[in-house]
User: Which sequence fits this backbone?
């Protein structure tokens, strides 16, 4: 077991009509002028933006809108946001949408609080010294950005998808009304469930340090997401199931499921970032397409850990040795992904890299890491990354 | 499932030598002059206070000491602290010790930020409008005060033990080094484990609302505490077991194990407060002495919930009906308490109230509640409270 810092200052307001409290939550932060940042027009059509603006009006808080954030949010939109906020004197960033919108708002927050090019922080050239405050009204359960210290932005110049993690950008508040996620199409819902599971799996499948309590929480969270994802296949408007998934999404990426560990593996995420950057796929689906191949490539470095996952989460009966149990668990996880209509290969994801593109994916993933390697269960070199991409075909 | 607010802003620094970071954590809060508040001289003898003072010295932060906090911390000490802090210009309260010291510091924090008698806030006469900031260096795992919104103080005038809960007093940081708890005697360690379990049990055993994810976390936490308490019986200096218990203590009372529920029952805690106030017993031991009697008194109002606890936490094989399973679970929990040398009756606790004292215990518990009743599984009237106290004999 290793030492850790746990810091989750985000105030969560969870339940029906939670969005009506947005104005009050912004006022608590002492904000005077808010950027309302959003993605698709869906949040306008449903009246959500209007409700939020009413709650700001009632408290005399000004605002300006900026929509058009896309999945795998773009650096150009971040620049646009920074410029708009400077011109309008914005002092608080309110993301209304899913993880892409939250990540875009966080990146704008970095840009406003620091001189120079904000991409420097994603490109590992400099470290940010602060960020403008961010709040989130969540409409998609997936990335956990509403409580996390992370933002992931895609630079169109080279299609690089990079993250920048600091406590400065942990949101001040998160408004979580499960009802707001009910109209999401099945593919987005299940892709979100996969991303949520993966945030805990990345931490759980590590190679240094373990804590009973963290494992219990991680395993319970994974079981909960799996049970409720299956419910949502048949009943997409089941409030309780939407709520379980939504809260799991926040807890899965706020640090709770990694306490006492080495921080986790994260190779799958980093490999998927390259696929997402180049081919613009749904992040959760991209993770499902890679995970099984990655797992079979690395499990022999820590078969006991994979076996524990198999038994405690996937209901596998223990085999004679951990390696066999681990393999059965990896298969069972892929079966689960299939059952919620997620791809378990790049082909099923609809991505068909050329020979050159396989090399490019691996090279980009390697150079994005300061050490040139990825992972904890197994330290992957660039050649390993390429082998995994190719085997995931 | 019900809506909820979840707010745990406390920055936790966990692991060996975590106390060396105290100065840095205080500096992050912008504090200039610190009250170092503590209980027994143990924290001075071990050199802990000296280490903390060194870490403050290095950053040029001033401090003044106030020791002598006792279990079931007294209002007179709180008054003394308020006066000292005003005289010395203290702007930050650092508790070094267990829950009693943290609670005393929190109450001083209320007193410093508000005019008038601080007891008014415990006596339900007024609500506090703020509090001075508090940080905790924990040496006893039990109350969870290091992350909670609660402080419990005993007024020697009438021996009333009362709480005052607001987000103002959630500690800014908590320094958790499991090694610091290793020298605790077995009785205090096991009393702490019981208190930790009870903070989750009070939330789990409710009568309105449930959330799969919260149940998974609660059940996992309870199993973890039970496993590791048994390890500590034989190996009190087992670092990992101390660490599991310590982290469970914080998570058990920061709100996590109650999300989506009606907030929980809390009758056992309120009944124990009266026993603690009048007879000055260890809080966790007092809870163990009452819990089984309370559970048998109320379980028929929600047998399914008690049965779930029995099966998922206590390993009871399900019986033909929930009531039988529930009863088997209550017995199994009492067996567990016995196995860690905790009392399961007032007699075993060493408390022998007179006929008048039983009435007084119940009356005090009833009038301390704004509604005159206690509990969620069953709304207890004063007569019920008296019956439980008598049956717990």
Assistant:
């Amino acid at each position: 077991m290793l030492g850790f810092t746990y810091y989750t200052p985000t105030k969560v307001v969870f339940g029906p009509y939670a969005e009506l409290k947005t104005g009050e939550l912004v006022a608590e932060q002492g904000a005077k002028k808010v950027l309302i940042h959003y993605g698709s027009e869906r949040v306008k059509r449903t009246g959500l933006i209007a409700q939020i603006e009413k709650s700001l009006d009632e408290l005399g808080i000004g605002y300006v809108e900026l929509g058009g954030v896309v999945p795998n949010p773009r650096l150009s939109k971040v620049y646009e946001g920074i410029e708009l906020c400077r011109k309008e004197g914005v002092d608080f960033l309110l993301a209304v949408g899913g993880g892409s919108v939250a990540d875009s708002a966080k990146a704008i927050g970095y840009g406003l609080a620091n001189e120079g090019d904000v991409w420097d922080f994603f490109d590992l050239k400099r470290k940010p010294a602060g960020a403008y405050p961010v709040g989130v009204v969540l409409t998609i359960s997936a990335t956990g950005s509403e409580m996390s210290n992370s933002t992931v932005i895609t630079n169109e110049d080279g299609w690089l998808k990079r993250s920048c993690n600091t406590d400065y950008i942990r949101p001040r508040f998160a408004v979580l009304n499960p009802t707001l996620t009910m109209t999401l199409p099945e593919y987005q819902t299940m892709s979100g469930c996969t991303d949520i599971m993966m945030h805990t799996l990345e931490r759980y499948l590590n190679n240094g340090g373990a804590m009973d309590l963290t494992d219990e929480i991680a395993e319970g969270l994974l079981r909960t997401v799996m049970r409720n994802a299956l419910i949502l296949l048949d009943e997409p408007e089941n409030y309780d199931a939407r709520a379980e998934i939504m809260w799991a999404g926040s807890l899965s990426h706020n640090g709770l499921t990694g306490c006492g560990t080495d921080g986790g593996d994260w190779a799958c995420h980093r490999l998927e970032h390259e696929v997402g950057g180049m081919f613009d796929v749904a992040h959760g689906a991209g993770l499902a397409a890679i995970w099984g191949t990655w797992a079979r490539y690395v499990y022999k470095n820590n078969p006991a850990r994979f076996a524990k996952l198999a038994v405690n989460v996937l209901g596998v009966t223990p085999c004679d040795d951990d390696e066999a149990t681990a393999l059965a668990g990896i298969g069972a996880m892929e079966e689960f992904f299939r059952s919620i209509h997620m791809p378990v290969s790049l082909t099923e994801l609809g991505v068909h890299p050329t020979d050159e593109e396989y090399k490019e994916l691996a090279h980009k993933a390697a150079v994005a890491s300061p050490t040139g390697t990825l992972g904890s269960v197994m330290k992957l070199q660039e050649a390993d990354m390429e082998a995994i991409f190719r085997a995931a075909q």
User: Anything to note?
Assistant: Chain A touches chain B at residues 1-9, 11-16, 18, 211-213, 216-217, 219-221, 223-224, 227-228, 239-240, 243-244, 247-248, 251, 256, 259-260 (CB under 8 Å). Chain A has a mean pLDDT of 96. The two ends of chain A are 36 Å apart (CA to CA). The CA atoms of residues 188 and 282 of chain A lie 8 Å apart.
